[in-house]
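TICKET #2291
ISSUE: user wants both folds in one file
ATTACHMENT 1:
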Amino acid sequence: MSAVQIGRDGISITATSDTRLPVNEYHLKEMNDSQKQYIRSSIPILESSGVNITQAFYQRMLENYPEVRPYFNKAHQISLSQPRILAFALLNYARNIDDLTPLSEFIDQIIVKHIGLQIKAEHYPIVGQCLLATMREMLGEDVATPEFLEAWTIAYGNLAKILIDAEKNIYQSQPWNGFAEFEVVDLIDESFDVKSVYMVPRDKTFKIASAYPGQYISISWKIPGLPHETIREYSLSKYPDTKKNQYRISVRRVHEGIVSNYVHEHLKVGDIVGVSPPAGKRKPPVLCFAGGIGITPIVPIVENALLDGRTVVFCYSNRNYSSRPFKNWLLQLKDQYKERFKLKEFFSKEAYLRKEEIIDELMTRVLLREDIMKLNSAECDIYMLGPNSYMRFVKEELVKLGVEPKRIATEFFGPYSP
């Protein structure tokens, strides 16, 4: 999915005279200087009281509009994490009201989040109504004048229009919309506080969608005692099994977590849940090179990348098979992550240890393999650590393959020699 590009010239403006609270049909309207000044005047207010405003906004919306309650995690309201995020968004929207280009990446993140939760166009008027009503109530008539509210009505409508249009385009490309019924077919305890849930479509003719590493699905749970369904997002903990037509998520029990405790204590094989299509950006692969004990700082890099859902190709050079450290760890990763962890190992005979050309020859063969070449794209993250001569060689080979030197993250062991 490409990023949303917006700015002074990045969106087309359609004039409209509608300055009421937002309605279902949004139009982009060019703001005049006076209206932009009202938005700018909100900056000090949002800096000092933004979280108070957004906290009150969520309380108003969740109390009065039960249809949006499934999309919000009560714990995030209690911790104020969600009000803080919205306050941050409003503040930066006000700061960049003249040119929204710096917010493109942040807006793209909002779109990804909305797609995962299956937020639809009909939800935006509810948000707009509650946000403006909260501003009017909390800021009072002296600040929240009709002109002030008119400016924020237009500003909100413009942002809503951008988000709705971008999300509509993505929804049209998805294999299904909303939440399809899936049946739980297996439950596996991975540890004392992690349980894996295997699911297949209830309709046997329904085919699951493939997914990029790192993508997630949202699940709509019907939990006894709750008056509404509850939606949560889960990373796919296994590449989708298209032969079994099966997804897997792994849920960690959270203290006082309503959903996680339900999964661990009450969910059973045969239960039905709602599942959204895979969402989230494709995360770039990681290419690691290590020589000998240079593997030590690479270990957390590899582990974090795999936990983040990324594909890792690890090229590891040693004197011989018996001298390599972390043998069991490497085998565990291969068994756990399968196609997402590709290990390429190289060994030089003891007699040829100091003859760099032996290692060079072995490494060159692998670097030219098709699966490595595919990873040498502009988005791939590359890490390298080992003896100086080893790293000089690897870097030279990567540069020959078209990799920009500045993209190779590296450190040196021992004294540096250029």
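ATTACHMENT 2:
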Amino acid sequence: MASSEDFRQLHRRAARSLIRRLRPFAQPVLARIRFRLRGVLDASAEARNPTPRQDPLLHRLEQLEIQLQRTQIAVDALRLDHGDAHRALRERLDQLGKDMLSAQARGEEALGGQLREASGHLAGMVGDRTERLLGRVAIPLGGETLVRMPEGYLLLPAEDVPLLTAMVEGGGRLEPGTVAVIQAILREGDVVLDAGANLGLTVLPAARRVGPAGRVIAVEPASRAAALLRRNIALNGLEGRVTLHDCAAGAAPGKAALHVGAISGHSSLLGQPGADRTEEVEVRPLDDLVPPGTRLRLAKLDVEGYEAEAWRGMRRIAVENPQLALLVEFGPDHLRRAGLTPEAWTDLFTSAGFTLFEVDEADGSLRPVRPLAELGKVHSVNLLMLRDAPSAYPELRFA
């Protein structure tokens, strides 16, 4: 489990990433001001011809530019909250630029004073707004909602109220126990497969955990979810370590009808209660998506009842990776639609040498799977499947 200090560091990194991503909103106004300030101080510097290190005004300009960069966050926060306030801030920034330009005629001392005044004003104006923005859990952005999680930010469909509610109540986590297990298994440089990646709720934690040298192979067939996931990967600067395949995982290549549910992540190649539409998707075996010879540490299969078919399509992967760990969703309702009994379903994995453990979503601890008669009564549970002894995973917690 990650420590509180780890989460604070992740939050700081996510905040810096958000600042970079939101920068274009305020760039036009701030660029004009920066250009004017440069012109004023360059003219003054040419007249006196000091070195940049000796010029206190250029030092003040650097400080002011830092404040201007922070102001970009405030501009966007105001845009989200209130159009009139956003326009007022733009007018204030324009006026500051004009004041700086006119200060050149009043001499160096007046210019220095103007810089100090502007810097102080911007610092006070930005501080509270920036902290409020970064402290938010969810920010509405029209058709999507930007939600903060410990590893970064996700764009979620604004119409998916149940998911948004669960994310807000969970502090940016939907399945905290599963995420804790993923983080405990993975190490720097590992490769992980996420079939049923949805919007990135487990992709982001996995990508952060494996680091720049690692890789996440994500598979998501639903067109809206896959499009948002692609944007989420870019939003968090993870293009270099996440590969997205917008297709379904199955036993053989082909085409199939995906039943798309109103709740993100509740889409299935099987008949799905509550599905309001279907879309044709490509089906590919996972063996085709993972290059031969890839050392795969973990594979997550959460494909709404199609897990057995996804598993049949990754036999080469299983042979090449004898120490592979699996995270698989078990749902009795899904199995009934697939025509499988719990006994037949679990035998697919136990016959391949896996020992099954249930994931406690409250704290990420693991316990041996309960008897099948009782397991068949649960609504849904994520199962961790290991070939190695539990002692091979020192960061996992077994009850």
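RESOLUTION: both attachments delivered.
EXTRA DETAIL ON ATTACHMENT 2: The longest strand covers residues 275-284.
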